[in-house]
Amino acid sequence: MATPNVPLWEVFIRSRNGLAHKHVGSLHAADSTLALQAARDIYTRRGEGLSIWVVPSNAITASDPSEKGMMFEPAESKIYRHPTFYDVPDEVGHM
Amino acid sequence: MYTQALNSSDGDDRGVEDVARTSQFQARIDADERIEPNDWMPAAYRKTLTRQISQHAHSEIVGMLPEGNWITRAPSLRRKAALLAKVQDECGHGLYLYAAAETLGTSREELVDGMLSGKAKYSSIFNYPTLTWADIGTIGWLVDGAAIMNQIPLCRCSYGPYARAMIRVCKEESFHQRQGFEIMVTLCRGTAEQKAMAQNALDRWWWPVLMMFGPPDQVSQHSDTSTKWKIKRFSNDELRQKFIDATVPQAEFLGLTIPDPGMKQNENGNWVHSPIDWDEFKQVLAGNGPCNRDRLAARRKAHDEGAWVREAAMAYAEKRKSRQLAQAAE
């Protein structure tokens, strides 16, 4: 009964002009044409999208969540990258 | 749309993993963090969720059958278009949920085979027949209404992919309930025969719908771990009570009688139902409901008859790929 596994695709949708494509979920399809059609039927039944990307799931390289401490440490220690790090005298007003 | 009695877990296969990781995991849950597919999780958490999400998915797919039964016989084009859209939504919900279940490491094919072989369960409510058009109204009003009660708390479930799938599902579910209630309003404002048909449908669906929330709290042995893991946020009885209290005034508006002469309002304003026939529930879950065999046979037939399409699509994709490779080599 077991059929050959159909490839997995990740679906990204741009909801309105000016917004980036956003990951909405995944689906199985034999090829990219069928994946696009299935993505339209599964994820945009109510006009949710103006543009769809489908990407083979195995083409995505992901960071390892168990190493997220080390991965993102460089950002943790640099508070001077945030505007609130700098003192601006009150008299200057909003900057 | 429908989870019920799916929140069961296996208690035995815990204790093998190291205590430190388990307590770290529990600390993340307690801090309301979401667990994502590649995060470490106890084997029992993975197993419980794989079962709950896939059974939820099977329920959506099998749930297309009782309603699909009426698409060609809908009383108007408007009703037909709405019912078709609703059944398509159920299919979509099944697919969101399968995708969420797969992130736990079981393939789509294995999940579907589990349903087709009868090993995996789906919601007992779909083993009841849709005898008249009023059943379509009642399913939307009550079955989808009960499903919404169950599913809204699942939008905050600790497992990220499940919670996100449920947010999509809940957004679409409100249309289902409203279209059902509209059918009921129309029938109840129609001829005496139409109103009798609506009452008859309510009489048949009321008790099975109450069973959708699962066994009463004092005999539901699985709730503790699911609550601890924030998969389940309200008990079966709490959700059932919420549903009844919301439904009684709606039935009153329709001029229909809930088929429970013993139902009384207590001092807190809650409607207290008479005892539920849990033997019937057990029988239906065990495969002896009115339509169990029919539903599985229909799913198997659809799966078998679609096999050539799946094979052809894969063969075509292979052919194109090898042609492209050959062209690139030239």
TrEMBL record, chain A:
EC number: 1.14.13.149
Gene3D superfamilies linked: Phenylacetic acid degradation B
Enzyme class: oxidoreductase
Entry annotated with the keyword tRNA processing: no
A Gene Ontology molecular function term of the record: phenylacetyl-CoA 1,2-epoxidase activity
Keywords: Oxidoreductase
Name of this chain's protein: 1,2-phenylacetyl-CoA epoxidase subunit B
Automatic annotation (TrEMBL), chain B:
Enzyme class: oxidoreductase
Xref: SUPFAM superfamilies: Ferritin-like
Pfam families the record matches: PaaA_PaaC (PF05138)
A GO cellular component entry from the record: cytosol
Cleaved signal peptide residues: none
GO MF term (any one): phenylacetyl-CoA 1,2-epoxidase activity
One GO BP annotation of this record: phenylacetate catabolic process
Superkingdom as given in the UniProt entry: Bacteria
Keywords for this protein: Oxidoreductase
NCBIfam families noted in UniProt: PA_CoA_Oxy1
Name of the featured protein: 1,2-phenylacetyl-CoA epoxidase subunit A
Native source organism of the sequence: Bradyrhizobium uaiense
Originating gene: paaA
